[in-house]
Amino acid sequence: MAIVSRVLARPITIGRQLDRRLLLATLGALTILVSYALPMFGARIVAAHTRFSQGTSIESNFPVLIAGQHYNQAHTPLNEELASVSIDVATVPYPGNSGYGWLARIAASPYTLGQHASFALALIVPLLSALVVGGYGIVTRGTPQRRPGWIPGLIHVAVAGPIALLLAWPHQFDFSLRLYQLSEVALLPQPGYWAALL
Predict the structure, then answer these.
(1) Residue 54: inside a domain, yes or no?
(2) Distance (Å, whole) CA 187 – CA 144
(3) Residue range(s) defining the domain that contains residue 169
(4) Which residue blocks in 91-150 are alpha helix, DSSP H?
């Protein structure tokens, strides 16, 4: 690891000395920005039917993204137990299944933005971290010695991006493993998600 650190610390000379770590960070930021244009989540749960032991049932439809189903499963009516859950999954066509498409869908109305604010935040944080790191690369022109005080803050922002993105995927099945298992492989993330996680 020390060898890798020393190799990355050596500057690249292209007319002037550039920091390899900053170039890698800027390349990572560009990767995130491009990956959001690729398919991320190609399917979504559009409806769920929850049945309880004494015949009570709850039918839920989700016009944008699933919400509240985990609560329906966890909070059973008095003297009843959860009997079964069935879901309907539909594909989301491109460009709606890209990261930018999901953000546009969520931000389309104040109601959906309020209902799915945590999902929107989980998608926005990696974008913001990419923009901040890319902006730092542009401002310093590849030589971080120009603004060394920003580096600790950039590290925190860069670490927050992947963590937020990891939290975006469970929103697709309302953080319920039961729903994820019912969807089989339909709710697996697509290439744009995995590229953004790199």
Answers:
(1) no
(2) 41
(3) 17-41+93-197
(4) 99-106, 110-115, 117-140
